[in-house]
Specification:
The complex is a heterodimer of chains A (about 725) and B (about 90).
Chain A: E1 9-14, H1 20-28, E2 33-36, E3 43-51, E4 54-60, H2 72-81, E5 91-97, H3 101-113, E6 118-123, H4 125-130, E7 133-135, H5 137-144, E8 148-150, H6 159-171, H7 184-200, H8 211-225, H9 236-251, H10 256-275, E9 276-278, H11 287-295, H12 300-319, H13 321-341, H14 346-363, H15 366-382, H16 384-397, H17 406-411, H18 416-422, H19 429-438, H20 448-458, H21 471-496, E10 507-510, H22 518-552, H23 557-573, H24 576-597, H25 599-606, H26 608-611, H27 618-626, H28 633-641, H29 653-660, H30 673-685, H31 690-700, H32 704-730
Parallel strand pairs in A: 1-4, 1-5, 5-6, 6-8
Antiparallel strand pairs in A: 2-3, 3-4, 7-9
Chain B: E1 6-7, E2 16-22, H1 26-34, E3 42-48, E4 55-59, E5 62-66, H2 68-71, E6 74-78
Antiparallel strand pairs in B: 1-6, 2-3, 2-6, 3-4, 4-5
């Protein structure tokens, strides 16, 4: 241990569903600082504790079943416990569910072998007693080789004793570690790996007493983790040794993985077999079993599934609506206030249309993100989320996805931003990335105003399709069908191309049903929402300001002067209502002229040759540029660029009639049904939403995957629109 | 795995068995073993998902869901009795 000023570092480890987060919240009083582990997207929570009168940092590790690095979470946990450089933790608290002890102790055993001081928190002792399990805690602890403290994290029971045990462990000199008993031939294999490990990771920072345990633990970890892995920091020499040792062992009939894992379980089975007794075997099915008989029943379970998912969908789609309306009204109010307080000019424009609008673009997502985070925490903590995956996995498997991808995909119908956050429940990184990259193709609610406007403009309202469906409703239905097909297809293709890997397996624990704790739900919701605002929010704000500047500047002095003159003329010749009407007309015209002259307008003109084969003119091109802020911005942009003023919505008659009569240069009608269809198809498939890109950048830990998404979706959108428009022309539509 | 071996995928709902060998993809086999699916462990098939896959098995006092494809790589021998699930130790 270094100088006396250093705050000791204690890690909190445990399996998923061990109650680790509940214990963390109980120990730290829910005052956690949240962030990410460096370079990865695994959430890191740190709290401060008082242990034996002095402060200790407690870090909540991701929930893992083992330290072998199969997933990003496991890599993070292994790296935190056995860092390749630096001192490592002073102690680890391992949370174990007492009702399934030996499986939970497996992780504790791996950590114990590293020689780091361990305290085992035997959680859910109340449930264990209710199930008739008798644990001889003192005997278990001494046989295992680390102190064990019974706790009930949900009720905060046993935390004082846990902290006392932790204080003792932090004071004591580290004891020698009882090594894992291994068969001689296997031990020789491990020793060979240990020799190459010695050279690769000099044991800096680790005390002399711990060194043998650390090298042995690292050798075991390397043997179990290397091979079909994605570990970046394993030196090639170690990798070669491991592969050679594994080949030789296999050829001599030794299954090393199994031998090492078996040795651990044999040790744990012997301990639990001796000191855990089943006093009164339960008669009849457990509560969880009884609930599962309903919730995974072919008929009742499917109905429950549809109901729960329907409620989630409804919440995201409609229940957040009033809050969103309030936020939008507040943003409008603040903009009005700024306009009133500041003189007209560039500063006023920057504040209202750049900064305030940008902040609005961030907080407008908060209701949906909070709602979805709460729902997912509720589903996860109650145990139902695992059943969702169980019930729907068969469907997701077909496109190479995991059952856990269902909730994020469904959420994508409301908004991709919270849906991307929801992919955190998928443990495998590749599975998670495939889901994240495919789900923005789900037709989100921001596309609806675009569909509504285009259908209202391009499709005759009187006609209906066979079956009584109006043409507009048919087109809308078609867009949703295209969206679902594209999402599933893209997932399948991504799985086979940019993110290849072994067929994703499903090895999913079905934990007991438990009542979620209000405090855990509130904290999960608060922390996720806050992270979104601080991390993705800043980028969204920055892009909003850039887009605003693009659509505003440069201004043309001649145009500005001309409109000043026209206004002055109107003032001189008109009065009363005709004057107001004339002013409104001039304002709208001037806005259109400004946008045409702006950088965004020029980009729209410049890309006209590119979008013309899709049936779009340059004004729609400007709309495509502007809708990068958010898809629904297309509506207000078209309103400006067609000179009817910005404050129009998709139902506005003046906007619709203006667009209906819009003509191309050669006099043909612009918004034909075919162009409408092409534009809608483009909006279904294109990656136009900067907020989605911002959140994908945050969640994937870099720019690579959002760029992949931007390119593949936009290429897909372009090609599909091209096929629709050119195909339609060939078939004789116009 | 030899022809004629019984695998976990061959068991019906309610049937118990003892694991003989865990095969298949190394990463999946390792995960299953680390979660306690090891030679000697007693398992019972509890239910099948509404769409026929995956299945839920119970072992070592907890529930685990795996696909039939994974279950087909786990060689087992049927246990005579299909009563309530055994002791906490699960193995032997």
């Amino acid at each position: 241990m270094s100088g006396p000023v250093r705050v000791p570092l204690v890690l909190l480890a445990g399996n998923p569903n061990s109650g680790k987060t509940t214990l963390f919240n109980a120990l730290t009083g829910a005052r956690a600082r949240t962030g990410n582990y460096p370079g990865v997207t695994v959430e890191r929570r740190v709290g401060t504790l008082s242990v034996g009168g002095r402060p200790v940092d407690l870090v909540d590790l991701p929930g893992t079943y083992s330290l072998s690095a199969r997933s990003e979470e496991e890599r993070v946990a292994a790296q935190a416990i056995l860092p390749s450089s630096g001192p490592g933790p002073d102690a680890v608290v391992v949370v174990c569910d007492a009702t399934a002890l030996e499986r939970h102790l497996y992780l504790a055993e791996q950590i114990r072998e590293t020689g780091v001081p361990v305290v085992v928190a035997l959680n859910m002792m109340d449930e264990a007693e209710a199930e008739g399990l008798q644990l001889e805690v003192a005997a278990l602890a001494s046989a295992f080789g680390a102190p064990m403290v019974p706790v009930v994290a949900r009720r905060g029971r046993g935390t004082t004793e846990l902290l006392e045990a932790l204080a003792r462990v932090l004071e004591e000199e580290p004891k020698a570690v009882v090594p894992l008993p291994l068969d001689a031939a296997v031990a020789a294999d491990v020793e060979e790996v240990a020799l190459s490990v010695d050279a690769a990771w000099p044991a800096g920072g680790v005390s002399e007493a711990r060194r043998p345990a650390v090298r042995w633990a690292r050798a075991l970890w390397t043997l179990l983790s290397v091979g079909d892995d994605e570990l970046r920091d394993v030196p090639a020499a170690v990798r070669d040794t491991v592969e050679a040792v594994q080949r030789r062992a296999t050829s001599q009939g030794r299954a090393l993985d199994q031998a090492i894992i078996m040795a651990r379980y044999e040790r744990l089975d012997a301990i639990t077999g001796a000191f855990v007794r089943v006093e009164s075997p339960r008669s009849g099915p457990s509560t969880t079993e009884r609930i599962d008989r309903v919730l995974t029943h072919p008929a009742a379970g499917s109905l429950a599934f549809v109901l729960v998912m329907g409620t989630l969908f409804q919440a995201l789609f409609s229940w957040s609506e009033p809050l969103v309306a309030v936020i939008e009204a507040a943003v409008g109010g603040v903009q009005g206030l700024v306009r009133w307080a500041l003189p007209d000019g560039p500063l006023q424009d920057l504040l209202t249309d750049g900064v305030v609008a940008g902040v609005g673009n961030v907080i407008v997502f908060v209701p949906q993100i909070a709602m979805l985070s709460l729902f997912i925490a509720l589903l996860e903590d109650s145990g139902y989320l695992a059943r969702v995956a169980f019930v729907i996995d068969r469907v997701m498997r077909g496109v190479g996805l995991h059952g856990r991808a269902f909730v994020p995909l469904l959420s994508g119908f409301a908004c991709a931003v919270p849906a991307v956050l929801a992919t955190r429940t998928i443990e495998n990184r590749k599975d998670r990335l495939v889901t994240m990259l495919a789900l923005p193709l789900m037709s989100c609610s921001a596309r609806l105003p675009v569909y509504t406007l285009v259908i209202g403009v391009a499709f005759p309202s009187g006609q209906s399709l066979p079956g009584g469906l109006s043409v507009g409703a048919g087109a809308l239905l078609l867009m949703y069908a295209i969206s679902v097909a594209a999402t599933l297809g893209a997932a399948g293709v991504l799985r086979r191309t940019v993110l290849p890997g072994p067929r994703p397996a499903l090895v999913l624990e079905l934990p007991p049903y438990r009542w979620p704790l209000v405090r855990n739900l509130a904290l999960a919701t608060w922390e996720r929402t806050r992270t979104f605002v601080t991390d993705a929010g800043t980028l969204i704000l920055a892009i909003t300001i850039v887009l605003w500047a693009m659509l505003t500047y440069p201004k043309d002095a001649a145009t500005e002067a001309r409109y000043e003159t026209l206004r002055a003329q109107a003032d001189a010749t008109l009065a009363g209502e005709p004057l107001q009407v004339e002013h409104a007309r001039l304002d709208a015209e001037q806005a259109a002229a400004r946008m045409e002259h702006s950088l965004g307008g020029r980009v729209g003109r410049a890309i006209e040759p590119v979008v013309a084969p899709l049936g779009f003119d340059w004004k729609i091109g400007v709309g495509l540029v502007a809708s990068f802020a958010a898809r629904e911005v297309l509506v207000s942009t078209l309103a400006v660029v067609y000179g009817v003023g910005a404050d129009q919505d998709e139902e506005s008659d003046s906007l619709r009639s203006r667009l209906r009569t819009a003509r191309r240069a050669d006099g043909r009608r612009l918004f034909t049904p075919l162009v409408g269809l092409s534009l809608m198809v483009f909006f279904v498939l294109a990656a136009q939403c900067m907020s989605t890109l911002a959140i994908v950048r945050r969640e994937s830990g870099g720019w690579r995957w959002p760029l992949v998404m931007l390119v593949y979706m936009n290429v897909l959108a372009y090609v599909a629109s091209l096929l629709v428009y050119q195909g339609g022309l060939l078939l004789g539509f116009e | 795995m030899n022809a004629g071996d019984i695998t976990l995928a061959d068991l019906g709902v309610g049937e118990s068995a003892e694991v003989r060998a865990v095969g298949g993809d190394r990463g999946v086999a390792r995960r299953l073993m680390e979660m306690g699916v090891l030679p000697g462990t007693l398992v019972r098939v509890v239910r099948v998902a509404p769409l026929g896959d995956p299945v839920e098995i119970r072992l070592r006092r907890y529930g685990l869901s795996i696909r039939r494809a994974e279950a087909a790589a786990i060689v087992v021998t049927r246990s005579a009795e299909s009563g309530p699930l055994p002791s906490t130790a699960g193995a032997r």
